[in-house]
Amino acid sequence: MISRVTYESELTWLSTRELAARIAVGEVSAREALADHLARTDSVNPALNAIVTRDDERAFDRADRADARQAAGEPLGALHGVPMTHKDSTDVSGLRTTRGSALLLDNVPDRDALIIARLRAAGVVTSGKSNVPEFTAGSHTFNRVFGTTVNPFDTTRSAGGSSGGAAAAIAAGIQASGDGSDMGGSLRTPASFTNIVGMRPTNGRIPHALPANPWEWLAQPGFMARTVGDVALLMSVACGPAAGAPLSMPEPGSVFDRAEFTPSSRHEAGAGLAGLRIGFSSDLNGLFPIDSEVDAIVRTAAGVFTSAGARVDDDVPNLRDADEVFRVTRAYDFAADYRALVREHRDEIKDAVVWNTEMGLALTVDELLSADEARSRLAARIDAYFATHDLLVLTAAQVAPFDARIEYPREVGGARLGDYLEWMRASTIISATGCPAVSMPAGFTADGLPVGLQMVAAPGRDVDLLLAAQEFEELTKHHRRHPVL
After folding, report:
1. Is residue 2 assigned to a domain?
2. How many CB atoms lie within 10 A of CB 167?
3. Cα end-to-end span (Å), the chain
4. Checking CA distances to 95, which of 158, 302, 369, 411 falls within 20 to 30 Å?
5. Burial class of residue 9 in the structure, from the number of CB atoms within 10 Å of its CB (0-12 exposed, 13-18 middle, 19+ buried)
6. Total domain count for the chain?
C-alpha cells in the first residue's frame, strides 16, 4: 500500500457534476481545478503509474481561456473547465499518443478522435494521457515503454486494463471521470478492480467515425467514473450520430440528460428497481469459471435487487455462440489494425498482439461465415431474452485484482486456462452480444480488494441500464469507499 502522506483537498473527491457546477458559477476557477488535479497527480501518480504523458503548460492556457469565458458570461458547456486526462490509445490533437508501444513514441495526431472532440467541445481541459497495455491488448495495464499501472487499493495488484491507467486515476482522486474503450472488458474489468463504474455502451451509441474504421463494432468507446451520474453526464455530451459514421445510433446524447441523474432530483433509493425482471447468475450458469470469493460477493447482490422489489430469477440466455463471435471478430480486427506492424516489427511487439494478429491473418472464409451465422443466432437469443427480462446480471470479472507482476491469471476457480482471453470471458461474452453493460462496485474481498458486478440491458436501452445501476449504487453505497493513500 502507499505509505507516504499524499495531497488531498476539498476538490479531490467531488464528482464531475459537482466540480463543473462550482466552476460554472465561479466558486472555483478552472485554473484552480487544474492546479488541484495536477497536485494530486504529483502526489499519488509516482506510486500508481497511471498518468504517462503530461501537458501542463498548454492545460493552464486552456484553463485560463475557460475562466475568461466564464467571467465574460459566455455560454458554457456541461464540462466547462473540468480537467481530464485521456486514454493513451485515443487520438488527441497535438498530444503524444503511443498506444503503449515504443514504435509510436513519436506519434502526435493532428486531430482529435470523435469522443475527445466532443468532450473538449463540452469544455474539458485536457491535461495528459493515461497508461494502457501495449496496443491495448489484455486486461492488465503494462508495457515496455511506461511500465505497469497498479491498483490504488493495493499497489501490489493489477488495476485491470486496457483502460487501467484511467481507472487508477479516477479511483485515486486524480480526476472524477474519464474516457476509455472496451473490446473485451477494457472499461468493465478495470472498473471492477478499482471500485468505480465502467460502461460499455450499445454499439454505435458513441460512433466510430472517419478517418478511423467506421464499420468497427466490437471495440466501443465509453466512460468510467466514481458515480453513475457522472457516466451519464459524459454520455450526454459524447453520444449521438456523426458524419462519416454509418453505424451511428440516431438518438442524440441529450437522452442521457435526465433529472434522475442529478442528486437533488432522486427519489427513495431503490424505488426504480421495483417490478424489474432480472435474470441473475454470477457465472451464467457455469459458462465460465469464477473465483469462489468473487462469486460469493457478487451473489449477495441478488438480495439487494429482491429487497428493492425486483423479480429475480436464475434464467439466463444461451450465449454459447458468443465465444466464436468474439474470438473471430477480435482476430479480424487485430489483423486489420496491426498486420503491417507485426510483419515489419514482430520482435518489438508483445507476443499476445502477434498471436492475435496472426490468428486474424489465418482466418478462412468458412470461419468468417460461421462467425456471422453465430452472431445472427446470438442476436435472436438476446432479442428473445429481453422480451421477458429487463436486466441480466453477472460478475464483471472472474477474479479479484491479481498480482501486478504477472501478465494474466493462468487459473481461475481451480480451472486451468488455455490463453490470455479465457480469464476475461465474463466480459468478452457480453461484448459479442452488442448489449450495453455496466460494471458496478459490488463489495470487497477479505483483503479489501474491490469486486464488481455487471448489469446488462437490451441493445439501445443504455439510459434504462444506467437508471437501474444508479438505484443499485444508492442502495449499496460501495462507491463511497476510497483507497487509503
Report:
1. no
2. 34
3. 8
4. 158
5. middle
6. 1
| Whole-number pLDDT of residue 262 | 87
**Residue 4 burial by CB count (10 A; 0-12/13-18/19+): exposed, middle or buried?**
exposed
Range of the domain at 306: 16-480
CATH number at residue 330: 3.90.1300.10
Backbone φ and ψ for 284, nearest 5 degrees, come out as 50, 50
| Cell numbers linked to 139 | 486486461
Q: Which residue, 284, 222, 241, 219, is CA-closest to 462?
A: 222
Does residue 303 sit within a domain? yes
Q: Looking at residue 268, what is its pLDDT? A: 79
Which has the closest alpha carbon to 220: 391, 459, 29, 401?
A: 459
Please give the angle made by the CA atoms of 380, 419 and 379, to the nearest 5 degrees. 5
CB atoms < 10 A from the CB of 484, how many?
10
pLDDT given for residue 204 in this prediction:
96
**Is residue 7 one of the residues assigned to a domain?**
no
What whole-number distance in Å separates Cα of residue 354 and Cα of residue 335? 9
Calculate helix-pair angle for 114-121, 228-238, nearest 10 degrees.
Answer: 100
Distance between CA atoms of 202 and 339, rounded to whole angstroms? 28
Q: In b/e form, how buried is each residue of 51-76, taking b as 16+ CB within 10 angstroms?
A: bbbbbeeebbebbeebbebbeeeeeb
H helices of 124-269, in order, are 164-171, 188-194, 228-238
pTM of the complete model: 0.97
**In which residue ranges of the chain is pLDDT below 70?**
1-4, 264-267
pLDDT at 264: 62
> How far apart are alpha carbons 53 and 75 in whole angstroms?
31
Q: Give me the residue label for grid cell 460499455.
A: 200
Whether 286 maps to a domain, the answer reads: yes
Kindly list the catalytic residues.
Answer: 87, 162, 186
